[in-house]
Known about the structure:
By secondary structure, the chain is an alpha+beta fold. It has helices spanning 20-34, 36-46, 59-87, 127-133, 157-177; strands at residues 12-17, 89-93, 96-102, 108-114, 118-124, 135-142, 149-155. The chain contains 5 helices and 7 strands; from the N terminus they run βαααββββαββα.
Amino acid sequence: MSLNLLQDGEHMIEVVHRHWFYLFKEVIAFGMVAFVPLIAVILFYGFGLGAYVVIPGSPGLLFAAFMCAWFLLIAPMVMVVWTDYHLDMLLITNRRIIAIEQKGLFAREISSFRYERIQDITIEIHGIIATLLDFGDIHIQTAGDNRDFLITYIPKPQRVKDCAFKEYNRTFARMGAV
């Protein structure tokens, strides 16, 4: 990782990216949008309405050019979704939890909090797909004025919660020993 997020003496326990289903869902949505013009032409000509449209030049060539331009508009949006998926992560270290959320191509939000500030960690799994594929949301409540943290589409959320609580307990064991 190119970001120097770790402090002296801090080491990484786990890096958690969003579940692959998040990317799958987004790509399917863009795929459906990408083929809307093709489906519209098929339906248009399928109902016999194409005979009433006069397009100068070769209609097939014109349509191919339009589809290429349409895909050139859709492709960058898919890349932004992939970049967001790839760069969103939750880092669990021996001292704190760091949540990195990519917001578009050129903006990133990095939030971190020490284990001493955690008040509660709640996981939510919504629906049959999330249950079968074992992904969900993690809500982390912290003490103080800061907002609560919500990280969505986390794979194996119970394992991530257990890992965070294990480090939480180690932190308080170290504090008691000092």
